[in-house]
Protein 1
Amino acid sequence: MKARIIDRDDVLKIADLLRGQGYDVIAPFRGRGRDTFFESISDENRERFEIHLPNPYYPPKRFVFPHMERLLTVRKSNGDLLIEPTYRETKRALFGIRSCDVAGIYHLDRFYLGRDFRDIYYEKRRQNLFLVNVVCTTLGEDINNECFCVCADTGPAARDHFDLQLMDLGDEVMVVAGSAAGEALFADRMFKKGTDAHREKRSAILNNVRKHFKNTTSWFSATVRYVSQGSILDKTWEEIGNRCLECGGCTYVCPACTCFTVSDHEAGPDEIERIRIWDACALAGFTRMAGGHNPRRAVHDRRNRRFFRKLAHYFIQRELTMACVGCGRCAAVCHGDVGMPSVVEMIRRATTESETHEAQ
Amino acid sequence: MKHSENIYLPKTAILDRVTDEIAEVKTFTWHFEDEAEQKAFKRFRPGQFAQVSLFGVGEFPTSLPPSPTEDETFFTVRSVGSCTSALHQLKPGDKFGVRGPYGNGFPMEAYYGKNLVFVAGGIGLIPLRSCIVYALKHREKYERIQIFYGSKTPNELMYVANLREWEKAAGIECRLTVDKTCPTDVWTGNIGVVGSLFKKPGTQIPVDNTVAFVCGPPVMFRFVIRDLLDLGFQERNIVSTLERYMKCGVGKCGHCCIGVAYVCTDGPVFTYEQIKRLGEDI
């Protein structure tokens, strides 16, 4: 991968280059308090752009897989049906997407595009998406108490799957190209060749940053083994289930959750639209069939399902990554404290304890 | 953009006729408006399923009761939810949407040279009808073929015309039973659950080199499995097809995912050995 150096003040010029190429450039902006949100960069808000701020809870997943999306419209006339798919092909650049979310999008790529059936709605959005990753280096801004990308092996600096990566070196920013489209931007004169000193500075900052994560001991590998072997006790799932309030919040903020439901709505006289909406396996109706039969009733069955789907070895092999990227959003929003890091810890403790007990 | 590249896009189907089966259950014979679609669809395998669209109401998965060796395409559907009720409202000539076929289906070629035992309860005969008709069409490929079918009452027996035909046909044994009768029923056959047919004098089910197809309501499934295991069947020689709430049918929406399997793409046909490992109720 090629790298270049720019002045820190020139970061927004990259956004301008992309805007010049017709991209809708979307970046995280600061709201009130901890709140941050993604918004298109405009001439009006351009000056409020910040390179380091807390990652928005509402994940950038929606730019490839919107929370609500029209799939098709059907017009009825004289008994005939005119079925038309509706596609969105806006050119978008995510400017300042964090490494965990880059991993999230790569996971979605594998899921929606990498199997027997390709999801064309996802594909069209993805093909038009340009990713500018920012390496998280600032404690209290980029890096928060819930962050555990170091455990999920997705950050703080993404290794691939971005077009450009920005690494703050202080007065300067190192820009790494991860794709041909990213490298093409280096033609601009603001990009200068780096030196060994730049590379050393990058390594030193990253080595230091890793020490700032509060949660560095999420025992994913052990948990993946326990989940895949089925050696987690029912009572552990029940304990996790008892703490779940069934709000579905964890799935709505998750950059790697993929489930959706589909429903039809009237769109006009003799016209209906079919839309898909994010769905959550925490909700009781998720598996309920017409007639009322529900093979998965208890809340702990549903919790078991979510973590099994995310951590079982079988699915990791199939999608090449865990369906958890270590962003910590579920930990931040869960009222019952059964976000991923807590669950991994609960499983580790309960299973290790029961194994120790059995050995005696 | 070619429509065939969109996995969620239904194709227009035209309803030809509606046949009453039993209370709340009707058979809908239909064909695709586009001839090429019809031809492509006709390559389905027994045990596969389709997604049916009633625009403005929604989409539902349903099994394919016809055998690919038959000329017509049809669904047999019980009116139970909003989409199935909407289908029941359609009149011949009405248009709706269909996409598919989806799922793995029964590996009928892999069963060449084997005995086939079909055990169905109630509307569980719908998906198995496809296999039975297919097997009879390729009769010489299989050894013994036995059908054990039961319903709650004589009025709830499905595909009566087919049953009569199978009862008379040479080279197959078709045994029927009902759970109960009422005084007005004319029923001279067996009374009892479907498993009671296995123990009838003169009935002998070969266990070696046999595949047992089991389909029916959850309670019937549990008892039949127990009976078959008692007879000496191995779990991997019992096959069934699972039903789940599904939105997409192509492994994306996540609703039908149980254990390590997506029922829509890895199933809906599983051996009992696999079903047990998936770790969820039938």
Note: Chain A has two domains: 3-210, 220-352.
Protein 2
Amino acid sequence: MTDAPVVRVRNVTVRRGIRDVVRDVSLDVANGERIALVGPNAAGKSTFLSSIAGLLPIQSGGIDLCGQSLSVLSGRQIARQAALVVALYEGAPRLTVRESTELGRYPHAGPLQGLTDIDHAVVEHVIAETGLTPLADRSLGSLSAGERQRALVARALAQEPRLLLLDEPSAHLDVGHALDLFALLSTIALRGVAIVAVIHDLVAAAHWASRMIVMNDGALADDGPPASVMKGAALGQAFGVNILGAHSAPGQDGAATWRFERRIRD
Amino acid sequence: MTPRRITGLLALGLLLSIVAALCLGTVRYTPIELLTEGLRALGFSAGAPLDEAHTIILNEIRFPRVLLAALIGGALAVTGALLQIVFQNPMADASLLGVGSGAALGAVIAVKLGWSFDIFLALPAAAFAGALGAAFMVYGVAQSTKSSSLTSLILTGLAVSAFLSGLTSIVLIASEEFRVRAVFFWLAGGLEGRGYIHLAIAAALIVPACLVIAILHRPLDLLLLGEMEARALGLNVPRMRLVLLGLAALLSGATTSIAGSVPFIGLMAPHAMRGLVGSRTPRLLPASFFAGAALVVLSDLAARALSDRYDLPLGAITSLCGAPYLIHILRRTDSV
């Protein structure tokens, strides 16, 4: 592991239409970090994630990926370093898990080359790592939501990224499948892959993440260990709620002590 | 059954369709006569020769027409499959590019100005120019709009098609009746009177285009995932889309200029094959090509064999098959 950040974001502003959806955001992401990006709807989380993946132009500031500016990297060069799993993806239902995962090798193999033995070995490895070997020849459309989410993570891992970006990976998953997914993500992070995940369930986010970042109205409102972010004022303010039992740190008293109460508006 | 075996069976089916189309019609041949004539053409001395009239009908009229039908059908199916991937819509076809309307306008202008009567191949050349012109107009106008690229392409395609159809109607209404009749036969779709020169032109355009599409199967597979996912995997989606739309315009321009309007093949063949061999392009495109080719070979056989007095329009035959198939798809909405 090196000390250089996987991603360095400096004063980034992203404009969509006439509105600055991300405003003057700066942060560093280190190898192996598990970052939960939280915030209310329309806070700019997904836009921020897409801009880190190089999919949206930034209005000002700069993003460095593994020490190189995104602006000088090609799409395939970015995809070899950063993989994005989009929210609520239900495309290509006829592709099998293996076929879908093989497409994750595109950044390495390119448009005209076939897959090499190394590519096939990586594909089989990530299918096994995500626990999908028995389902490898099943179509994506025939999988449950939890299995499909793991298949999408497998495709992202086939890119062999140093940074894994996930937009609402646990949306529509029941608690059991969500726990399985977060356990898988933790295992991946242990390999040194940095993970930034947009998560709506604050309790799940606090339990899984090593660092929690709060976005509100396009700006960073808080950034730190989950225990301190959960008891900080910024989180409650961002969501317009009071967080009760915020003194409890995850792993001590557990999540059950956190309760959320809607603030009375002025 | 494996996709490879299905594709093999489709190729065999195409071969049988070609043999049937060569044998059947107003003048009939046995498969043995076909084999004998084929061996003779290759320089072998085999069996008793056919009389001169039968030899000319087989070699100069039926053989190029049947091969052209196969080539046109395969190209229509590949074009449909390609556009369905690019537009991420299983019901997309060449009409979204305005190609049919552009080709029609080009053909009508060539007829109206008398070029088609005076200059050899002027009608298909004008139709080809109209088809490509329409496709470039659709793409250019769509790029200049502010809405999302796919939506603006579809809506621009509809608008340009309607505009060009309006112009076609105006030119037609101002044309003499014999000229309108000439263009009607072309618009209705058909291969009557097409020979080796048309086969050579079609092959020169369709074969290279299909080879380039086959080479691009990996980017095409990426587009199956959707625009955002394809971009996240490093594909330059706008550039690839432009290349693929250019190839689709070339293919549909070639087919429309030579055979006129042959609807539904681009929709039926890929849709049916997707259910049999899956959606990955290395399997879907060859299977669609063979299925589309066999469909048009058999439709053209029906077009010339169902009536002793005249050829029925090929486009009418494919419409009569395609429309019920489309209704069948719509009733099973889960398969769309």
Note: Chain B has 15 helices and no strands.
